[in-house]
Each structure stands twice: as structure tokens, then as C-alpha cells.
Specification:
With 403 residues, the protein is mainly beta. It is built from four helices and 25 strands. The longest helix has 19 residues.
């Protein structure tokens, strides 16, 4: 599957098809001269360009795209993330990728060419080893035992997979094994990641690059029984007082409370999330579809958003993209507390120990009692881990509905 950029505004230049069809290789150029690579396909339909970003099994549709003269502008459907490019030739574009943050926007130089129709080139020939399976992963900044898990699926030279951490996962990774080398990357509008590594017996060692400047060493050991430590757990401070009492505005400014009649005598799923969060995007896609299929059974979902800033209008705009992209029917509430605020839990959900991961999911029963807190969401890029998440989630809700 692929993601599609539909051109929202096209000048007469597009009728002349100024860009080549076929596979394009895209580069985000870091300060250390390393390049984070991803791929897209470009086709034309009725004089309209369709750009398909290839990222393993992911599909993200971008509709806010425009060509004006020799310039091309493309906004991601979720996140504060966009490309501004110049059409250099039929086979070349360059420009910048802009990503919103809690402070200044991050700006990374961008280029793409149609003359290299591959993501990574197998410069060392065929793969010498097959690394499919489960690996314990340690990054250089982490001390002690490995706390992350890599899951790989290799077919010939082709490699896909993800890395799971105690607070989420790296979503869809795609690349190759060539000779004794591993190359993997992903781009989703927030994540811009590159893994390089060398395989030696049952070990992989290499470098991990993230966005503009971040770089650290990583080591992986084959481990079919690897598990994640419970580092992101969140608990009720007093189990004798486990009913919630929050009240926040929705995207229209209307106040919504967990004590409102629409939530009474129902199983309620509370999603702690943010429009800046790629794993929240994956959980939102699941919850939106699940809610449509199950709301008649006596369940409700509420999203509590912790955004980059306390600016209501900025938060509303970003969350509105989420709401539109995933056709969300349940309320998204703006907490008005920044995700970076060290007191965000005390200001919004004071009955809990600190929030350590996004998304975090709180499930309450028909009597309003907190029955489960999930802090280790695994998305669709993780394969069997995502299947397990869905199975456990549905089992928990089914049990509470039967009570």
C-alpha cells in the first residue's frame, strides 16, 4: 500500500506534465551530510499528478497540495508538517521540509530525483544473512539491559519491520539487506528515521539517525523471547478513589465532561493523545473505525489532547486535521496543557501517577470505575504485536460490557 498526494490547486503548467512518471528517490539532508532516504511514485491522471509515498504497508492520503509556476507545496494530512519545493526539471525537485514543534519550526533541506528509481541500492550484492525475527535492541544513550525490540521480515534483499519501545514503536520501516549491511528508513511527516548496520553472527551494530541532528549507535542481538520492560506504566494514586471528573472544551469550544449523561452507564475508552504523535495517529485510525462498529453496544470514546502549546486555535487546527483524516465521530477535547508541561498530569488527571507515554489508554466500566490503563500501544507496523493489542483491547471491552 502507498500514500497518495492529490493536487489541490494546479496551474496550466500541470497540463504539460512537468514531472516524470515513475519512481522517485527522496532525500532529507541532515547537518552531518547523512541523508534520510524515502521513495515515492508519480503518475498522471486526467492531467493531475498523483504522488504515492512508498513506506512498506502504510497508506496516508495527502490532499492539500498545490503547484504554482515552478513551485510545489504539499502539506501532510495530519501533523504540522509540509514540503515547499522548486521543480528544477522533469526529473528533479528540491526545497525544504518544515515540521512544527513546541518551539521554532524544524527546517530540513529536501531533494528528490526520478533518475534513481530505488530506495536503497544493493551495492554489496545479495544478502549474506536473513535477519527475519525478533531482536533485543539497545541504543547508546540507554544504560543497562536492552529495553527495545526489533521485529524484521526479510524476503531476499528486501527488509521491513519496526522497533518497539516501552512508550511506542517506530512504525513502518523499509529497506534492504545487501551483503552484510542493513539499511532501513521511514518518513511519515514526523518520523524521519534511518538505520544503518552491519551483521556479524547473531549481532547487528550500526548508527541510528533521526531528523536533522540526532545520531546514536545501536546494537541488536537475536532474541526470540525478548520482552519490553514496563517503564511507562501509569497508576491510580489511590485505588479507593478511581472515578474521573475531568471537563475540557471540544474543537468547537463546547465543554464536555466525563460526567455528562452520554457517558453514563457505558464503557468509556479515554485516549490520551496529541496531534504531533505518530503512534497516536495509528491508535486513532483503529479507535475511529472500532467506535463506528461498536458504539451501538454501549461504548464511548473520548480523546484528551495534549498539544505543543496552550494556544487553543493552533491546537484546534492541528486536531481538526486528525478529525478529518480519520473521520472521528467521538469528541476530541483540548486539555489546554502543553505536552512538555512537567505538571500536565496534575493539571488534568491528578488522580494518576505521571503520564509517560502517548498514546495512553484508560478504560472505565459502566459504573465509572477505572479498570485498565494501557501505556504500551503497538501499531500496525509491528505485525503480531498489533494483532495482540487489538485482541486484548476487544477482550477487555467485551468483558466490561457483559458485566
Amino acid at each position: 500500500m502507498v500514500s497518495v498526494l492529490w493536487m489541490g490547486m494546479v496551474t496550466s503548467a500541470s497540463a504539460q506534465k512537468p514531472l516524470s512518471t515513475g519512481s522517485w528517490r527522496a532525500f532529507l539532508n541532515r547537518n552531518d551530510s547523512e541523508r534520510i532516504v524515502f521513495s515515492y511514485n508519480l503518475q498522471w491522471m486526467n492531467n493531475m499528478p498523483l504522488i504515492s509515498v512508498v513506506n512498506a504497508d502504510e497508506k496516508i492520503e495527502l490532499k492539500d497540495v498545490a503547484i504554482s509556476g515552478d513551485s510545489l507545496f504539499a502539506k501532510m494530512p495530519v501533523f504540522e508538517s509540509e514540503f515547499r519545493m522548486k521543480i528544477v526539471s522533469k526529473d528533479s525537485v528540491n526545497g525544504i521540509w518544515i515540521k512544527g514543534t513546541s518551539g521554532k519550526n524544524q527546517v530540513i533541506p529536501f531533494a528528490a530525483t526520478a533518475k534513481q528509481p530505488y530506495r536503497f541500492k544493493a551495492v554489496k550484492g545479495n544478502a549474506q544473512k536473513n535477519i527475519s525475527g525478533k531482536w533485543s535492541v539497545t541504543f547508546a544513550s540507554e544504560k543497562g539491559e536492552a529495553r527495545d525490540i526489533a521485529v524484521f521480515n526479510q524476503k531476499g534483499n528486501s527488509l521491513t519491520g519496526s522497533v518497539l519501545t516501552p512508550t511506542g514503536d517506530y512504525r513502518y520501516l523499509q529497506g534492504i539487506v545487501t551483503g552484510d549491511s542493513v539499511l532501513l528508513s521511514t518518513f511519515d511527516g514526523v518520523h524521519a528515521l534511518l538505520f544503518t548496520g552491519n551483521i556479524s553472527q547473531q549481532t547487528i551494530t550500526g548508527s541510528f539517525y533521526s531528523s536533522l541532528n540526532n545520531k546514536k549507535a545501536w546494537t541488536a542481538f537475536r532474541n526470540d523471547t525478548a520482552t519490553l520492560p514496563d517503564l511507562a506504566a501509569m497508576y491510580l494514586k489511590d485505588t479507593a478513589d478511581n472515578q474521573l471528573h475531568f471537563r475540557f472544551p471540544d474543537l468547537n469550544g463546547n465543554m464536555v465532561s466525563i460526567n455528562d449523561p452520554q457517558f453514563k452507564n457505558k464503557v468509556v475508552v479515554i485516549q490520551l493523545m496529541g496531534s504531533w504523535c505518530p503512534n497516536c495517529m495509528d491508535e486513532t485510525a483503529f479507535l475511529s473505525d472500532w467506535y463506528k462498529k461498536n458504539r451501538s453496544r454501549g461504548v464511548e470514546v473520548i480523546g484528551l489532547a495534549y498539544e505543543y502549546t496552550t494556544d487553543f486555535e493552533r491546537s484546534k487546527k492541528s486536531l481538526g486535521k486528525f478529525q478529518q483524516r480519520f473521520a472521528i465521530d467521538y469528541p476530541l477535547l483540548i486539555t489546554g496543557v502543553s505536552v512538555a508541561d512537567s505538571l500536565k498530569t496534575e493539571k488534568t488527571l491528578p488522580q494518576f501517577t505521571p503520564i509517560k507515554s502517548f498514546p495512553t489508554t484508560i478504560i472505565i466500566d459502566k459504573q465509572g470505575q477505572v479498570r485498565k490503563i494501557e501505556t504500551d500501544f503497538a501499531g500496525p507496523g509491528t505485525g503480531v504485536y498489533y494483532d495482540q493489542f487489538k485482541k486484548e483491547f476487544e477482550s477487555t471491552v467485551d468483558t466490561l460490557l457483559s458485566e
